Amino acid sequence: MLRRYAVALAALLAIAPSLQSQAQTADHLVDYAGSDDAPDYTPGIDAANIYSGDHGDYTYTPSGPGSPDTGFGGRVLVGHGRLTTNDLFGDRRDRWQTGSVSASRVVARGGWTGMLPDHPFDVLEYRLGVQVVSPEYIRVPAPDDRPFAGVVSLGLHTHFMRGPVEFSLGADLSATGSQTGIGSFQTAMHDLMGVVAASPSVLSNQIPNAVHPTAVVEVANTIPLGRGVLRPFAEARVGLETMVRAGVDLTFGPVGQGEFLVRDGISGQRYRVVTDAMPGFSYVLGGDFAYVDSSKLMPASRGYDVTNRSRARAGLHWQGDNKALFYGVTWLSKEFEAQPEGQFVGSMRIDLSF
């Protein structure tokens, strides 16, 4: 029963930011645009000019005396998204990659046209990430298990295209240690729900206070396949964790076509940020492999031997008239030599507009 309460709380994290009225959303858009009038949505994007799909889309065109020359350097807010990932949605074992939240706000110069611009910095993504990793047993862990770590990241990323190739370039500042308050917060929540919390010795041995600058680059190519999309990608990270990764995502269905999605760093699931209310379902499959050089979350100075990593994922997008849902599950291979096995985590997002 207590585990069910924990699942309900994690689900609340997935849904709470989206419980807003359409009028409130419009007010936010006006605030960022610096306009006295709500932005207009006008149809007219040729389906051949968006990422893929056979349906129409919209052009987000800000209007009013203050747009688009005010706000974010002439940019306007075009969308926001988030994804909650937790092993409670997966194998329910509360270990290793135990939970994370990713949130993005995207602004664009001239609004969103259904495809990425040719120039960097015309589209900017402000990214917030919270991550909790822990040993398998948080009261008395095995001596060679990974240490507890809480991570809070703030980042700025730009997205653009050159020909058919999509680029994402950015940097994050990732804070670790007790300064983040994540260990104390998790303990309080576990105590509230009657769930076993991390012992004082586990928290005292957590990854120490530090701020880790991290650079992230992703290159991808979206290839239409009938009613589906194949998207191979390559990624490099240097900082909190240093690795190179290559993989592919496959999407079938109308939801997400012509939209803007960004990748969650833990699960690899892509979540919707600039959305089109095209009703229906989309099914996603994906996987990737990473060569890992080092990790500040498992420092070699403590004797940890990091391993290369694989991820395999599947998910479902559903879009209704005023509601949307995403659920995905990801298998994560082991991340260090002493880790006995991989794990399953689930990712969830719920949107309600009324």
Summarize the helices and strands and which ones pair or pack:
Blueprint: H1 2-15, E1 19-20, H2 22-33, E2 40-45, E3 57-61, E4 75-86, E5 96-109, E6 123-134, E7 149-162, E8 165-176, H3 182-193, H4 200-204, E9 210-221, E10 223-225, E11 228-238, E12 241-252, E13 260-263, E14 270-274, E15 280-295, E16 309-319, E17 323-332, E18 343-353
Parallel strand pairs: 1-18
Antiparallel strand pairs: 2-3, 4-5, 4-18, 5-6, 6-7, 7-8, 8-9, 9-11, 10-11, 11-12, 12-15, 13-14, 15-16, 16-17, 17-18
Structure characterization notes:
The chain has 354 residues and is mainly β. The chain has a single domain, classed as Lipocalin (Beta Barrel), CATH 2.40.128.140. Helices cover 12% and strands 49% of the residues. It contains four helices and 18 strands. The strands form three sheets. The protein has a twelve-stranded antiparallel barrel. Strands 2-3 form a two-stranded antiparallel sheet. It has a two-stranded antiparallel ribbon with strand order 13-14. A hairpin with a 2-residue loop joins strand 7 and strand 8 (165-176). The radius of gyration is 21 Å and the shape is globular.
Provide the descriptors you would attach to this structure in a database record.
mainly beta; 354 residues; Lipocalin; single chain; disordered N terminus
